């Protein structure tokens, strides 16, 4: 029965997206949708002769003394609605008197309970008006009672402890929002909402309603690129098997490459910051190429290993994750094809005893086509001789991926990456930036080395909601390949490119591009052309 129906595009948002950066985007989508209907809104305003009174005494245009059809009061938290309603003293059905309204509002301000009191008179027709009154209280309300609905008996004490609010505490909604994000960070809840109900003057009841995630969750994915071809993925998350609070994650990728990860961990149920011990098992079998000379591939390896580790992690509000792990890894790296001296491309069967550490700080607003925020990652891996590792080595890398958007369509991406390793680091532990997402203009695996710095800038233009055009430029500085008697160094490798991306929320994306860059690390000044294609999920 509405005159106009405006439906903002909220694809990609959920009921849990209440942090500030996402609220700003949701509000922006609402404004964008409203402006698209501006002509219809103006026509509706003229049809019903609607206007907003800047001065509530200006009712000269009304044909008769109007009646109050509705009184809306908003902004209160601790005072009961009935108290404010009675203080206003204007009821639906009363005739509207501007002077009486002014007097009532002045009395509200004189009570010194409210920091601010605003009002608005909204004419609905020649004979009826609506009163809108918004208040802001001076003092934060005191919590009278806290209730949590929907949490299982095992998770309820955890939720109460992390919430950290009880009877007699002052209610600060900003602190409440931070505590709710910590609850989300535990990984047990699908969504959480809260209600504040005034009970008496300056006291409220706080009620949380939560929906827990299912005990078992299966996810499936598919990806295709022009190197690994088809890659399928499946992951299974199981909560509370055998022991309440225990979580088991299994993920497998297969077809064009093979990876398996099994992880068992137990998030802390005594600390406010989600901390967890974990056990991890890994298997990988990934084809990797080695280039030399011009742009020719001289060897293809199966990067194969099995590892098991024990570690400790911290997780905060789904944004930050830190893990430290002791791990043993059994390498079984063999060349399928080696066109050069077999001494340069041996078979490795090492047993590594290592320390691994990794962190992620993820403040991006999306996965497939981010518009705002940044992703920072870092990792450290080391095998120590005193731990009887067959190969002593150390390696470290850090990256920053940042996005910013202007006028909703123009997005700039800045990407920086640095890596370095000790002289004894084996070739199968080298860093690989030879991917279109990290370096454009060179082939897959061409940018495999023991150290380098990568700087990249992308420009993306949104043609439509699902279609983007991209321009890319990058440079790799101080590239090093150091293994046995082989020493390769390049001061500067370069590349530029362009492409297009189609984004499908339930499928992933399709990306097609072209790059032109350094022919190889031994011939950085001459160029080569490289095309790339990928589609499916990002994993």
Structure overview:
With 539 residues, this protein is mainly beta. It contains six helices and 25 strands. The strands form four sheets. The chain has a 16-stranded antiparallel barrel. Strand 9 (247-255) and strand 10 form a beta hairpin.
Keywords, please?
mainly beta; 6 helices; 13% helix
Task: Produce a short descriptive summary.
The chain is mainly β and 539 residues long.
Q: What structural class do the secondary elements suggest?
A: mainly beta
Query: In oligomeric terms, what are we looking at?
Result: single chain
The portion of residues forming beta strands comes to: over 45%
Tell me, briefly, the overall form.
Answer: elongated
Q: How many helices?
A: 6
Helix content: 10-25%
How widely separated are the two ends? 46 Å
Average the pLDDT over all residues and give the rounded result. 85
Report the strand count.
Answer: 25
Instruction: List low-confidence stretches.
Output: none
């Amino acid at each position: 029965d509405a005159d106009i129906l405006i439906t903002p595009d909220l694809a990609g948002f959920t009921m849990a997206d209440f942090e500030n950066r996402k609220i700003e985007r949701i509000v922006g989508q609402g404004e964008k949708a409203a402006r698209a209907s501006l002509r219809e809104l103006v026509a509706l305003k003229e049809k019903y002769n609607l206007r907003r009174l800047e001065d509530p005494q200006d009712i000269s245009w009304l044909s008769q003394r109007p009646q109050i059809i509705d009184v809306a009061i908003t902004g209160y938290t601790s005072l009961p609605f009935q108290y404010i309603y009675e203080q206003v003293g204007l009821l639906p059905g009363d005739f509207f008197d501007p002077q009486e309204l002014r007097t009532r509002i002045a009395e509200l301000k004189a009570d010194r309970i409210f920091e601010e009191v605003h009002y608005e008179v909204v004419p609905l027709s020649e004979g009826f008006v609506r009163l809108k009154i918004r208040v802001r209280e001076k003092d934060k309300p005191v919590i009278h009672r806290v209730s949590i609905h929907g949490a299982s008996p095992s998770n309820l004490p955890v939720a109460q402890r992390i919430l950290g609010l009880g009877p007699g505490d002052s209610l600060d909604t900003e602190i409440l929002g931070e505590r709710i994000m910590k609850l989300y960070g535990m990984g047990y809840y699908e969504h959480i909402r809260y209600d504040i109900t005034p009970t008496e003057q300056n006291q409220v009841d706080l009620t949380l309603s939560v929906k827990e995630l299912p005990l078992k969750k299966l996810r499936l994915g598919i990806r295709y690129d022009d190197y690994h071809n088809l890659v399928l993925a499946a992951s299974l998350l199981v909560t509370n098997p055998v022991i309440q609070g225990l979580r088991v994650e299994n993920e497998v990728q297969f077809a064009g490459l093979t990876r398996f990860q099994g992880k068992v961990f137990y998030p802390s149920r005594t600390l406010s910051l989600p901390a967890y011990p974990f056990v991890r098992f890994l298997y990988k079998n990934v084809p990797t190429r080695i280039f030399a000379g011009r742009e020719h591939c001289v060897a293809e390896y199966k990067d194969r290993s099995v590892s098991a580790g024990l570690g400790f992690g911290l997780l905060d509000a789904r944004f930050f994750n830190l893990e430290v792990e002791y791990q043993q890894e059994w390498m079984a790296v063999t060349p399928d094809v080696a066109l050069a001296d077999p001494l340069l491309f041996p078979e490795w069967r090492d047993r590594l005893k290592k320390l691994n550490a990794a962190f992620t700080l993820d403040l991006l607003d999306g996965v497939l086509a981010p518009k705002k925020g940044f992703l920072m990652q870092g990792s450290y891996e080391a095998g120590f001789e005193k731990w009887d590792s067959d190969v002593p080595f150390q390696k470290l890398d850090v990256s920053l991926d940042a996005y910013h958007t202007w006028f909703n369509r123009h997005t700039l991406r800045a990407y920086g990456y640095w890596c370095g390793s000790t002289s004894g680091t084996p070739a199968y532990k080298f860093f690989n930036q030879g991917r279109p997402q990290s370096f454009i203009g060179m082939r897959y695996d061409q940018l495999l080395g023991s150290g380098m710095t990568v700087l990249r800038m992308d420009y993306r233009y949104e043609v439509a909601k699902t279609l983007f055009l991209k321009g890319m430029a990058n440079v790799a500085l101080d590239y090093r390949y150091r293994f046995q008697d082989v020493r390769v160094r390049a001061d500067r490798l370069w590349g530029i490119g362009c492409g297009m991306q189609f984004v499908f929320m339930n499928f992933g994306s399709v990306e097609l591009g072209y790059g032109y860059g350094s022919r190889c690390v031994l011939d950085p000044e001459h160029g080569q052309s490289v095309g790339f294609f990928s589609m499916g999920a990002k994993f």
